[in-house]
Amino acid sequence: MAELHQTAAHAEHDHKPQGWRRWVFATNHKDIGTMYLIAAGTMFLIGGLAAMAIRAQLFKSGMKLFDPAMFNSLTTMHGLIMIFGAIMPAWVGLANWMIPLQIGAPDMALPRLNNLSFWILPFAFTLMVASFFVPGGAVAGGWTMYPPLMQQFGAAFPMLIFAIHLMGISSILGAINVIVTIMNLRAPGMTLLRMPLFVWTWLITAYLLIAVMPVLAGAVTMQLTDHFFGTSFFNAAGGGDPVLFLHVFWFFGHPEVYILILPAFGIISEIIPTFSRKPLFGYEAMVYATASIAFLSFIVWGHHMFTVGMPVAAQLFFMLSTMLIAVPTGVKVFNWVATMWRGSLSFEPPMLFAVAFLFLFSIGGFSGLMLALVPSDYQYHGTYFVVAHFHYVLVPGAVFAIFGGVYYWLPKWSGRMYDMRLAKWHFWLSVIFVNVLFFPQHFLGLAGMPRRIPDYAPQFTDWNMVSSIGGFIFGASQVLFPYIIIKCIRSGKPIEANSPWDGAHGLEWELPCPAPYHSWQTPPSEAMLAHGTGH
Amino acid sequence: MKRARLGRLLGTSVLGLAGRLPLASAASGWDELNMPRGVTSASKSIYALHMMALWVCVGIAVVVFGVMIWSLIFHRKSRGAVPDVTLTHSTKVEVVWTAVPVLILIGMAIPAARLLLKINNNTDPQVNIRVTGFQWGWRYQYVGTPVSIISKLSASSNDASQMHSGIRPTAVPHYLLSVDHQVVVPVGEKVRLLITSIDVIHSWWVPDLGVKRDAIPGYINEASFTIAPNRPGIYRGQCTELCGRGHAYMPIVVRAVTPAAYQAWLKQHSGPPSEAAARLPAAAVTST
Fold first, then answer.
1. Which of the residues A226, A336, A367, A446 would you substitute to probe the B interface, choosing the one with the greatest number of B C-beta atoms within 10 Å?
2. Does the annotation mark A520 as catalytic?
3. Burial A136-157, CB ≥16 within 10 A → b, else e
4. Looking at beta carbons, which residues of chain B come within 8 Å of A307?
5. Euclidean distance between the first and final Cα of chain B, in Å?
6. Contact A146 B160 (CB under 8 A)
7. Each residue of B185-218: pLDDT tens digit?
8. Dist CA A384 CA A365 (whole Å)
9. The complex's ipTM?
10. Contact across the interface for A379 and B60, Cβ inside 8 Å
11. Shortest CA distance to A331 belongs to which of B71, B102, B36, B4?
């Protein structure tokens, strides 16, 4: 307790630069985390508007709100913005806020680097979004940017590539910071196998980022030199190979999807024990399962390209390695279920999102298993079945985990409680309409509707209409989220205790609410650590 | 009109949930929900594999979600549930739920691998067609014959698809799924496609044939199919790899006819290119 008082006393003497200097020259992990989250929210809004436009165009057969080229730009930019602009920065924001609090560190290890890695992003996002307004419009070759199609776009093409380079640099710097912080700034006694799962999953994610972001940078740079400097890496007429790009891209792309989901696993592993009032079941198995998933993610990229005409032996290898991922993923789901088993469950908003995650991410996992079977994939590939699959793992998967994480830690950040009733409205509207939005897309894909088309045959109208209606309501209900947060910060009920959740364990809950501007300037005691880690 | 459609949809989905859809509604309702069985042995085997995988997933879901729902109902704090905090790990259980999925996966992988080897056998074709994708259409060259067809979106679909056309898609026969010149193949004979592209990557897909293969510049990909002898008809598909603004407007229409009618058609089209637009006698085609 002595440490606690010390920390609290110190908090009153926090001095920080005032006004814009506090943000532009920010080196405090909480400020930088906040900026990351605001940036991610902004991009989520822009990407979401693109999604609404896509669903409006697809409302019925023969709808012509947009020119097909504009539609292709919308789908391309929706994908890029949501992946690189919304989900990834949201994870970095949560990492910035939570990792130092959870491991008992005073800040991130490299605060100035942290500032740089954030402030690169607004420039990258501006370049990317601004490409909508240059002659020829935004890049319209899909977020996967396959050549030779990618080579056909105008001024937006180098803008996008430069934006990707910037985002890649930002991600790598952020990842280095996370690794250095976790490896060097853990409080005494916080051994690796006592770290919270969110810290573990982020550590593994950070290694994935460092491994694959340069691969993406290389692939897009080769496209750039093909376009402007006369090389022929991917140009068949010049002796190059378009399929080479697919291999390189998906060698990045598959670990990338785990970059998007592993921190979600971490958050779910924090929330479920808290609201089950029971320690996480199989902690070590969870850590090893995460590491196995990360390892396997490097040897499955071929499953994105079963129809390109790879040798049958290669198709077989990628099918089997992909199916293998179901094992550690299953272990994780089973451990979460076992954590709830014989617990004492209550359903505050974070838990609601976590439970929805369990159900809906599993559905995405099932369709993933089906997609792994090559012969079936010949029929699924490039259809709405795939769209349904990856939206199930990314929206009720990654995005719900972000919502859950924010609802879980917002009281810690703001020192106030949000409006639970509104947050439950946000949850129920989201969970119902995310299914109305994405479940029918399974049917569309199976019935033969290709993805990335601006118009379709009339027999696909019914389910597209359902999907669009679900999309509009899902989209509209997200307005609640910033409203709830702003309302909480302005007028939420102040929290007296260190934790608003009676079942919460973890060092962040040993600090007062809100967490002081400079926290853990003296490391937590062993007693605190034992209470915090629950073992 | 719109309301009727939504009503019908609600009806089919409710029935679908009750698992009675194939009985309760016309076959068209089922077609909107699931993969077609198709008309080749490959497409039928793929359908069977797909259904097997689906039911395995449903089975796993019932068990896992069942346990979760049990917890959600009976292990609630509001029902006075007391947490069993000693329940934190069990090596035995971890081994079981690692091993059981492995066994299930092996059970799925074996038939999948068998089928994969079977449908990638492109040897001994009776008909060879070179398929070339371009922005935006397909060219079909019948190897060993002078016959060559350029197949593009039909004029009626093309007109209706223009901005401000004012034409309702339902007023156009097979909107976006009809072409000016169909590719004609014989039933009961093994057809091998040699697929390539002259510009960007396209993908040739006809769901009823169970064939999807990318058309890639610089590559010649192979795919083959044999349509069941009793299933002549018209089979429609679309390009499935984003290929630019015309991606949605380059459908594939395969007309499967009897071998005799196929030979007659080939002969008819082997003349000078100006005659290439000649049509097949209507009797030779049974439309589905």
1. A446
2. no
3. ebbbbbbbbbbbbbbbbbeebb
4. 203, 212-214, 240
5. 26
6. no
7. 999 999 999 999 999 999 999 999 999 999 999 9
8. 16
9. 0.92
10. no
11. B102
